[in-house]
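Hi all, posting the design record for the shared folder.

TITLE: backbone redesign
STEP: 1 of 1
STRUCTURE INPUT:
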């Protein structure tokens, strides 16, 4: 007898070999198989006769096979099977391509249901490669699974069916009281109906229950992760050194920056650790806020850590902050994946001895052997790039550590509540003075010659340019799509021959990237061809032009982040989005960038259009992958589960009660999958 934890290889008809195919889909045990939900359904329950069906309709027809299969080889490796069916009134000519198994399994005078496109003309009806099942099992709603090459949707359906048939009642995960309160069907019924629904209504009920459970699990898991940091703290800040810090800056802080620093400092004086989100559009000056806090924390005798999502950004923070804070005798070090082993050892030793005040780095910072002497403050920059677990691990490096997360990505309120829950929020709603609006244009490549001239003029004035190319998979052979390498070659041999062109992309070694980035920041490179590796945080105020190739391949929020790399100084900046896309929709999306400069506004549009790289698609904000729920579409359920999660925790904060054990397991399962 199977149970939910049984390895799928024990399901009848699976075995070792096929189990591997399932493993590739992330399916290892019966539980994960049953939670591999259909992507959509085909309704074979509403059968029609040939006379009732329209020409060209996708339809299920009950029919009897009336002639044996005739085989014809069309060419090598391609066999055609022909046979006839009758629905009692009309004849249906069926052709099957290459599917020997199906052709051999069909028996004359047996009853079947055929599903597919029905072609009718005056003399006959025909179906080409319809799906065919026996009548007694075929007339129902069929699940369609996201299949992979060797594992067809049909094969998955059969295995799911076998598993369900040999499984007892699936144990319930939600307490009766929750199910009653929110009107949810049992898990057993939901799982059975989501795979093989009896009706649309049953399917809707099943979905509701499963979406609710998934979002509830997510909420509880997030709340639990967070509560780890809600202890007391002894790391209170005694004195505020912001005034002193300001003397290190070449500019005056904006009102918003001052306010944010004050709010954070206030937090750090309390007996619970600070847990704050600093949200500010690109270029609003979040780094200076972080630096101010680091200053105060270090002057109070604690250490600080700053984690950035890319080596480039970490390196840049290191260069900027060590120059700024070094003047005040604050020792800054950089630790990334590419730091040499010997240097790493030394840095770790000095960190433990308290000889380093601020450690900047990538996720190398959260490795187990990185130990601080007395860590007081953890800052994560552009935090949406990190998984939730990563953030938590860094904070766990000290007890009661203050945390600040800095993010330029505006997020919808509901999602914000999940991600940041009880975080306090400071907003930088003011840009540093002297910034000029960036002029944005959407053009096609016919404009290139003029554009290059325009860029050369800027370079002649001593300014610098970015050219951004989308990341191109090697398998992709789309016309007109060039990789950054190709593009850099082309420019340096063509329009920009004799110019010092730099190239920056994700596959380069970190040291090479640093070299290129330094050369660009130092002005030695006048034109930088790059992929989105420059998307986050990079700050070269002298760069005034950004050209984005194949702009239709980027998400709007991503374009906004990219555009934020220019317009950082006092000189007028230009962003040129190049797209040869014929799609009206794509053009329309890109024009949003011309219309709006406000990141929040653009994020809204991004949500509405859900283009490539959208907010909930690729980058899920480090949240666990959802199997059935959709953050946007299931917003209402999300609100309900929020309320429900709080109710559960109010009664049973540690989820110790027997009725909550199954949920606990669910949470562990969901968050176990969270790789960093
Ligand atoms: P982001 O919020 O995108 O991380 P940065 O911290 O990189 O922004 O700051 C963007 C640019 O603005 C930097 O060049 C920084 O030196 C400059 N800057 C920050 N604060 C001020 C200010 N108050 N006045 C003038 N320039 C500032
Ligand atoms: Mg930044």
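Okay, here is what came back for every position:
SEQUENCE:
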């Amino acid at each position: 007898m199977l149970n939910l934890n049984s390895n799928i290889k024990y399901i009848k008809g699976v075995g070792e070999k096929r189990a591997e195919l399932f493993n590739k889909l992330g399916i290892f045990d019966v539980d994960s198989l049953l939670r591999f939900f259909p992507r959509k359904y085909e309704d074979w329950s509403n059968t029609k006769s040939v006379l009732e069906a329209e020409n060209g309709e996708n339809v299920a027809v009950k029919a009897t096979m009336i002639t044996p299969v005739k085989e014809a080889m069309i060419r090598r490796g391609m066999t055609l099977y022909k046979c006839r069916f009758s629905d009692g009134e009309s004849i249906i000519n069926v052709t099957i391509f290459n599917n020997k198994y199906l052709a051999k399994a069909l028996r004359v005078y047996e009853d079947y249901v055929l599903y597919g496109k029905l072609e009718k003309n005056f003399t006959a009806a025909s179906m080409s490669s319809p799906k065919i099942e026996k009548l007694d099992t075929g007339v129902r709603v069929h699940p369609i699974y996201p299949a992979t090459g060797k594992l067809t949707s049909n094969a998955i359906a059969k295995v799911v069916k076998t598993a369900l048939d040999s499984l007892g009642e699936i144990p319930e995960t939600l307490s009766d009281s929750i199910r009653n309160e929110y009107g949810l069907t049992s898990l057993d019924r939901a799982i059975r109906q989501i795979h093989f629904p009896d009706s649309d209504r049953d399917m809707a009920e099943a979905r509701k229950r499963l979406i609710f459970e998934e979002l509830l699990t997510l909420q509880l898991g997030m709340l639990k992760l967070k509560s780890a940091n809600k202890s007391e703290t002894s790391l209170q800040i005694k004195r505020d050194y912001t005034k002193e810090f300001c003397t290190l800056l070449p500019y005056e802080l904006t009102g918003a920056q001052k306010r944010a620093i004050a709010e954070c400092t206030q937090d750090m004086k309390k007996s619970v650790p600070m847990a704050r989100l600093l949200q500010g559009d690109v270029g609003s000056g979040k780094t200076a806020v972080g630096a101010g806090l680091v200053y105060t924390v270090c002057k109070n005798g604690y250490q600080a850590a700053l984690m950035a999502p890319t080596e480039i950004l970490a390196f840049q923070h290191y260069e900027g902050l060590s120059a700024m804070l070094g003047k005040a005798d604050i020792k800054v070090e950089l630790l990334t994946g590419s730091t040499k082993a010997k240097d790493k050892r030394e840095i770790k030793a000095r960190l433990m001895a308290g000889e380093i005040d601020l450690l900047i780095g990538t996720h190398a910072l959260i490795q187990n052997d990185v130990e601080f002497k007395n860590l007081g403050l953890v800052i994560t920059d552009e935090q949406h790039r990190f998984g939730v677990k990563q953030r938590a691990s860094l904070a766990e490096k000290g007890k009661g550590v203050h945390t600040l997360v800095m993010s330029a990505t505006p997020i919808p309120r509901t999602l914000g509540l999940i991600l940041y829950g009880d975080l306090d929020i400071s907003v930088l709603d003011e840009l540093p003075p002297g910034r000029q609006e960036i002029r944005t244009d959407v053009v096609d490549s016919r404009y290139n010659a003029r554009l290059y001239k325009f860029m050369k003029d800027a370079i002649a004035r001593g300014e610098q340019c970015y050219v951004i190319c989308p990341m191109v998979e090697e398998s992709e052979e789309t016309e007109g799509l060039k990789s950054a390498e190709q593009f850099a070659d082309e420019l340096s041999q063509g329009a920009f021959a004799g110019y010092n062109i730099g190239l920056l992309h994700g596959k380069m070694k970190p040291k090479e990237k640093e070299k290129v980035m330094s050369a660009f920041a130092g002005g030695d490179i006048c034109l930088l061809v790059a992929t989105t590796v420059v998307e986050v945080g990079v700050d070269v105020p002298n760069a005034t032009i950004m050209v984005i190739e194949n702009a239709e391949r980027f998400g709007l929020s991503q374009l906004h982040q990219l555009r934020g790399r220019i317009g950082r100084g006092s000189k007028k900046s230009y962003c040129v989005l190049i797209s040869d896309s014929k799609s009206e929709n794509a053009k329309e999306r890109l024009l949003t960038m011309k219309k709006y400069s406000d990141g929040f506004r653009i994020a809204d549009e991004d949500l509405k259009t859900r283009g490539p790289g959208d907010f909930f698609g690729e980058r899920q904000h480090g949240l666990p992958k959802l199997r059935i729920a959709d953050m946007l579409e299931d917003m209402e359920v999300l609100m309900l589960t929020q309320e429900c999660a709080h109710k559960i925790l109010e009664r049973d904060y540690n989820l110790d009660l027997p009725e909550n054990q199954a949920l606990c397991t669910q949470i562990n399962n969901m968050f176990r999958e969270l790789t960093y």
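COMMENT: The longest strand covers residues 111-120.
Let me know if anyone wants the other runs.
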